[in-house]
Amino acid sequence: MLAETAAATSGWFLEHAYLIPVIPAVAFFVIIFFGKKLPWHGAEVGLASMVAGLVLAVGTTWQWIQRVESVSREEGGALARGMFGFARGLVPQAAEGKAEPYVDPVIRSWTWWQSGGFEFSVGQHIDGLAVMMLLLVTFISTLVQIFSLEYVRGDRRYTHFFASLTLFSAGMLTMVLAENTVQLILGWEIMGLCSFMLIGHWWEEQANSKAALKAFFTVRVGDMGLLVGVAILFGAFGTFSIQETSRIAMDPATSQTVLLWAAIALFIACIGKSGQFPLHTWLPDAMAGPTPVSSLLHSSTMVVAGVFLVARMYPVFYNGFDIAQNGNSANVIAVIGGITIVIAAALAFVQNDIKKVLAYSTVSQLGYMMMGLGVGAWTPAVFHIFTHAFFKCCLFLCAGSISHTASHHSFDMKKDMGGLLRRMPVTATAWILSTLALCGVPFFSGFFSKDEIIDNAHHNGYTAFWAIGLLGAFMTTAYMTRATYLTFFGKPRGAAAGHSDHGDDAEEHEMEHADPVPALALAHAGHGAADAHDVHASHDSHGAHDAHASHGKPAFGFPGESPMLLVFPIVVLGFLAVVSGYINAAPFGIEKFLEWVEPRASEFAPYIDHATFTWAKAAPSIVLVALGFIVSLAVCRAIYGEADSKLKGLTQRSRLARAGYDFLANKYYLDALYEKVIVHGVAYPIANVAYWINQNVLDGIVNAVGKGGRRSGEWVYRNIDQTLVDGTVNGSGSVARGTGGALRPTQSGKVNQYGALLFGAAAVAALVLVLVNT
Amino acid sequence: MLVNNFLLLGAALFSIGVYGVIARRNAVMVLMSIELILNSVNLNLIAFSSLHGNIDGNTFALFVIAIAAAEVGVGLAMVLLIYRNRRSIALDELSEMKG
Q1: At residue A241, what are phi and psi to the nearest 5 degrees?
Q2: Assessment of whether the complete model's pTM goes beyond 0.90
Q3: Considering CB atoms only, which of A749, A756, A759 is closest to B97?
């Protein structure tokens, strides 16, 4: 078998991909130890390491593609191999000639440490999935670090911020190319630690440090599952190697019970890390961190780690949960994913904080990914990681840009935003493009990935999840329309209107003329983008306010477009939010992602079926997206717009609506459940019972023992203590005193005397030794 | 025999060292005497090492030299501090004990 794939090309980048996480890890230490002395306070080291990682990742991607192509070319003897290793009732599709040869991953490993004769290794496992994630993580991290240069400028822990950010990326990269599960845990835990440090970056405020703790502990609940799952797999298979584990998991002779338990344990870890129901509560609170952190956390690192784990160990889940069985209409992954899609989307409707809307949106999209993996749509789910990273990162950076420049560090859409379309044209354009991608509007990237998931759910016989996917698409469009409307349209409010420092009536008056009809949004946005180019062409990054003066508008209290360092990543990501989907655009027959990333069916990977795209099948979701947009727009205009309407203040008048709102606003009372019911409910009664037992039972016993003890003690005192013991003690005391007196002169404090005693004793000992030995 | 000469020299040095430790009042002289003792031991180690033809003795001698260097470093530092505090390094004046 090795001989067969020996023709697969490799290359320096593929062989040395392990350098990608090593560079930022080294950079972390450089920043920590020397960062403060450097001219940019360590930021340049982090950024340079990310750029270096990106260059290496691009090289790796290039060589991986060549490797895949080189294997695909010699398809001759490969068909037989494609058929090999099908297990558990899969339908081999080799007959159609579509089965392509398995591309061996580039695996290298070194001994990490040895324990009890067993070697723990560390290394790299480079396959399509790892390559895709490497590229994604380094790319997003680079842009986020560029964004952070400006966003956290002047922060009191600037250096530490960049150190944590760099280590965070290093952790994710370590996990992504992990050769074995132990290394995977290492990267996983580094990320957990760094997310704690970054979410709690501004720990002086109690809420932030609480959010950091909550994120850390909630994820730790899941992490137990990871340890248990890895232990089960190691116990059963005797190996940590991911490749070997996959092979054994695909072996039909392997016990399914073991796989099932391992899969359940590992999936608990994924629930915690990827914010799936019911452990999703930490994700919105994690918004307490600086916005670049949220952006990185929610796009390519941390939260996709759980999805990545499922995708990486897919054979275990695939056979453990029997995903292949058509008509086996539910399994844990799909159910949890489905629930997450809907509940998170519903929560996004009642958030006023723009970042929280995005946070719940992320949770919901992660639900899509999980559901995709659960219904056997491996490639669409992984593709959704890819596209989602770009547009979600972009949305978060837009939110950061708005708060940085327009709303005086407020994220409240209702109070401090509105009407920002004209003021921040570039940000608004990028936001709208990303939103379109997120909603799955045709020809934007999200459409190609999300619709594939929905389509494949149907194709693989999971009809219920097809419906949930469609419902999710509807809800996504609706809440994103609401957020967009509140942020960029309507009248400026609060800080966005300049109320917090310079109220300017003329300015507000002008803003009223801003066209609030989103149907024209794109035209306006396009126009705005051109404006912004003028602005930035003629002014440096700090010239935003002056820029507006040059447009003949009043400069006071007027939030202009953000500085160049903030806008640049946003523009890049906004562009990618549109085009990144075309790497695997099923409607146009482009299936590069499928070719490059998907592991071909073999003894290491299950066969993944693909639905063929037709516009007829995509129609329901397109219609629902359009419907979601219209309904939401109508409701938004009624509630938040100028005109009076019946819907205004509905939650104040209707008790039913109020109850629904409260239910959502309180996040289904899940936090309350965890804290009040579980923590209090379990901890308090136990504490009360323990107290009662303490007071009555234990104290009673102690008191009785005490009384008895006292009586017997008195007797003992009189008869034994006074006569027998005291006599002995006094006797020994006087003996000790006598001996001490006799020996006291030896402790003279005179060094010479001590030396004499030492050598005398040595001489005596030597004499004894000689006498004994002769 | 050659070894005997070495051993005799070692014994002589050891005795001189012991005499110095016991009889000298000056702390520096005591430290020097300790060096003499250690070096007499080194002589013994090397003599036996060459007698038996294995290098274990040499190795130990090297260790002893290293440790002696450390010891004398600490010792001289202490002597220096004692001198700064008391303007004297006479060992019999150091005692604060009542015995």
Answers
A1: -60, 130
A2: no
A3: A749
